[in-house]
Amino acid sequence: MRRGSGQAGNPPAAGQQAEPAISSPSSANRLVVWHSDLAAWLDRLGWLRTSSDWLTAVLGPVRERHQDNLVLELLHGGRWVGHPLHPALSDLPIGLWAGVMVLDAADRDPAPRRGLDAAGMLSAAGILAAGVTALTGLNDWAVSEDQDRRVGLFHGLLNTVALGLQGASLGTRMAGHRSTARALGAASLTVTAAAGYLGGHLVFTKGVMVNRVAWASGPRRWTRVLQEADLPDDSATAVEAEGRQILLYRHRGSLYAIDNICSHAGGLLSRGPVADLTVTCPLHGSRFALADGCVRRGPASQPQPVLPTRIRNGWIEVRGSQPAPRRPANERTQP
Ligand code: FES
User: Fold this and answer.
1) Of residues 78 and 233, which shows the higher confidence score?
2) What's the alpha-carbon Rg for the chain, to the nearest Å?
């Protein structure tokens, strides 16, 4: 057996080390980085940047003017639902349009039919659901950040194309051209799947509308964060304890401490105004009660964690979540 490069008919020259036969790491990597490459490629599209900036300039002031509108907050899902509405609603058109394909696949009747059959009804219901879902998506899009907006806009454009294809499919179905309707319906669902993938990228990779303080814990023990004399009354002050960013506030002798990272998208609450013991996030205007961290206004749907405070020897101390109680050793050995 010949030792060499692994290629037939090409032995290594005398004195040369044969190169090990390994596959190119770049080709292997490509299989696992294509999704981030795709997002980066989308982010470089000039027309997408221009469109995103233009839409931001149009929608931003409108949103700011109507920040207190309950309908806008409900479209986010907000404090009443406890998590964003858009991802849940997006299941409806996908499910309904997948149902259309199943009915079409099961339909063996070759006779041309006009009007609205069962598959047509699912298609129409999906179109209605897609309209409401698009509204919630646009509302969430308006409170997202730069790169997320561009990927989000492309996600929305794909969904618009899918909606158009589904509309065309429904029209041709009602006109009796079922083969064309099926082809258009399949194309619509394919584009919807691609859009859904980008939506998943935004949530699972970029954390859009994901609770930014879900893992906040600690410090495990009472920890000094600021000398009492250094905390002015009625002024939000940012401090840090074991890497956790905390907002301190004192009003009429009462101390308040909540997580300083906004649960919506990571805005620094200490940079926002405080009125009536409620802090407003400077990024998208969510409001949180300092006393219990409750959401007073969206887009945030999750409250801010509250930390206990105390004053010892002139120092303000805070404590995070308690460590889990240790189980006795004899319990730990039992199943
Ligand atoms: S980061 Fe969006 S409201 Fe705070």
Assistant:
1) 233
2) 28
